[in-house]
Amino acid sequence: MDLSPESVLRFVLVSAVAMLALSGLSERRMRQQIVGMLFRTVFPLLLAGVVTAMVVLTANRYPQWWDRWWRYVVPLSTLIFGVALWLPQRGQRLSWSGHWEFRDPAQGPATGAGGLTRPPQTGLRLLGYLIILIGLGLTAVPTLVLQRPDITPDWVEPNGFLIGVTGFFGILYGGKTLKLARNRQARELLSRPIRGDVWRGSLLWIAAWLCCLAGLTLTIGGLVLMMRPGDLAWWQTFLTLCTIVAGGAVFTRGRRVFLRARRHRSRLVPDHRQLEAGSYVLYLRSFEEDERQTALHEVPLPGLSGGAAVGFLVSGRSAEEHVAEILRPVGPLVAVGAPGERLPYVGAARMYLPLAGWQGPVSELIRKSRLTVLTLGTSAGTMWELAESFRLLPPHRLVLFIPALTRTDYERIRAAAPRLPECPEWLDAGYRTVIQGVIYFDADWTPAVAPVLDDSGNVTANLFTAMMPALLPAFAALEQYEKETGVLCG
Fold first, then answer.
1. Per the UniProt record, which residue ranges are transmembrane (predicted)?
2. CA 116 to CA 124: how far, in whole Å?
């Protein structure tokens, strides 16, 4: 048996491709659970093994190569370690979505923005045929290697089996794409770009990638130079440190540009009356809360504990984007935008209501929502929305978020809404996390409060993963309520 590093690595690649491909052919919920398990356990351990093998085996086998290139192993290992930290985070997101089996709303005719009939999925059908043709071509590669090794490129022969396996799964995926083109229904929210200059968002997206890449290059380049301090004069060492700091600043700026680019690509719900009952999650909050939730929640330091790779991969998310993603199993998040705002925040799809008479449409949105989430606040509008939610909704369809409030403000809100629990001991207006806790209710309106744990100092944590334990009982209660009643709203 050949146990050389190349053979072992080739076997690992074939196994990884096969596991991912098989999971992709399964039902959506099972696929998310399988891939989540792979991301959380198998792949991080695999990457750790690759780093260990690279450091240990390569040094013994290629001493001359190691003496020349060992300095580059450190930054490369940092990148791989960052990916290994990011994979469990992604696995938790997939597992969260795959865990819930909320019944989908009844589907109406396939429509797009403005209620127009969706055209046939011709493009998707052509893509399916193209994938099948490519798959057939790839499956012929192993036969070509055996029959005509003289015309086969050197890099193809040792990887022929991997190419053949990829082609086989390509054929299966092509068939699945054809099935999707035949049976696809319109499940996305009826929305359209909120601005006519969406192209600016695309340009900013490219600029953000270049900015992050430049910052990452400066940081890693500085780390490589710092690995040989004996070759540097004091002023060169000082410039190298400045380069690392500048790389971190450029990297962080790029992440902020990503956020700006997504704001240019925000979606608009043209008319709240187009929303089907039970097809969305309504997000209520004061407009001042938008300012606090627009900041980047994850700000890793490039080059430290793999933070650069984590930040580069996730591209930076605002708190509202985390909220929209964690509520995605129930439905897409929609919110009323602030009047007159030129560039809406990202996360929830915005709709806009007139200043006069906005209460009527908001009441209708609350009544038709599958779940209403409200961030507590002391403004008059938020207090009215809280009272209206208590009046119109059953307890399982209301979840309250506790922001960074003072105890005085919380007691003021509780005086107007006696159903709220007593002020939690951990409530702190200076808390770093935007959302401090989650309030949910039993069938008799008995409140329960769950804290959102502080994630400071943990590079693998973010608002999404911190909120998962807090929202777990609320999701379970909503799932049971819908199974018992068979309704999706009210």
1. 7-25, 37-57, 69-87, 126-146, 161-181, 202-227, 233-252
2. 19
Q: Which of 332, 434, 333 is nearest to 377 (CA)?
A: 434
- pTM, two decimals, is 0.74
DSSP 180: H
Reference 407, options 445, 379, 378, 374; nearest CA is: 378
Question: Residue ranges of the domains in the chain?
Answer: 5-100+117-183, 193-485
Cross-strand pairs, 230: none
SS3 421: coil
Structural contact between residues 429 and 405, judged by C-beta atoms closer than 8 angstroms: yes
299 Cα distance to chain centroid: 15
Measuring CA to CA, which residue among 346, 345, 348, 351 is closest to residue 324? 348
- 384 Cβ contact list (under 8 Å, min separation 6): 359
> What average pLDDT does the segment 296-303 reach?
49
Q: Could you report how far apart the first and last alpha carbons of the chain are, in Å? A: 64
pLDDT for 359 beyond 60? yes
Is residue 119's pLDDT more than 70? Answer: no
Phi, psi of 256 (to 5 degrees): -70, -35
Q: How far is CA 230 from CA 61, 125, 261, in A?
A: 27, 61, 43
DSSP string, 64-103: HHHHHHHHHHHHHHHHHHHHHHHHHHHHHHHHHHHH--PP
Q: Is 155 left (phi over 0), alpha (psi -120 to 50) or beta?
A: alpha
Interval 317-349: pLDDT, tens: 788 888 999 999 999 999 998 888 878 888 898
H-helix or E-strand containing 448? strand 447-451
What integer pLDDT is reported at residue 411 of this predicted model? 93
Mention every residue, 6+ apart, whose C-beta is less than 8 A from residue 348: 283, 320, 323, 324, 333, 334, 335
Strands 371-375 and 281-284, by their bridges, are parallel
Nearest to 465 by CA among 476, 453, 479, 450: 453
- Alpha-carbon span 28 to 97, nearest angstrom: 10
